[in-house]
Design brief:
Blueprint: H1 3-32, E1 35-41, E2 46-51, H2 54-80, H3 84-89, H4 91-117, E3 122-124, H5 126-153
Parallel strand pairs: 2-3
Antiparallel strand pairs: 1-2
Length: 156
């Protein structure tokens, strides 16, 4: 395989390597700006209860979405425009790489969540926590699959 056939995959990897650290930083912003609510005590564990700061949660979400979309518009779209036929042949690899990087993002977000909160800290509302840790990797994967399919169907 020559270098021209590796280009769309390499561009995808560069794009994801740039987006994932910023996404982890946005999640760190969400978790670090929490507000203390009180303590809880259970049969086995006890700890503190925190609430997401809604403003910082929305700010972190916007950073994730804006960086992902702007990085696509300013970097990836330009590089994938002329690679429709090549990408059509490598679409499965494109999707596999998107899936692997989504798993990397999940692991990084889980690590940020665990390092900032530990085992005994609870966040309220829990759906915000789950949406960040589980939803963002799924959104990134769906976005990358859509990018791959759209650019593989464009002819030069």
């Amino acid at each position: 395989m020559d270098n021209t056939k590796k280009r769309p995959i390499l561009d995808e990897v560069i794009f994801l390597l740039g987006v994932i650290p910023v996404t982890v930083g946005a999640a760190f912003l969400q978790f670090a700006a929490r507000e203390y609510e009180g303590d809880y005590s259970g049969f086995i564990t006890s700890g503190s209860v925190y609430r997401f700061n809604t403003g910082f949660y929305v700010l972190g979400l916007l950073v994730f979405l804006v960086v992902t979309i702007l990085s696509y518009c300013l970097f990836l779209r330009k590089r994938l425009d002329g690679a429709g036929e090549i990408l059509k042949n490598q679409l499965a690899l494109f999707i596999v790489i998107a899936f692997l990087f989504s798993l990397v993002l999940f692991a990084a977000l889980f690590a940020v969540c665990f390092l900032l909160m530990g085992i005994s800290i609870k966040m309220k509302p829990e759906w915000m926590n789950y949406f960040t840790v589980f939803g963002w990797p799924i959104i990134l994967f769906i976005f990358m699959v859509a990018v791959g399919v759209i650019h593989s169907r464009t002819n030069e």
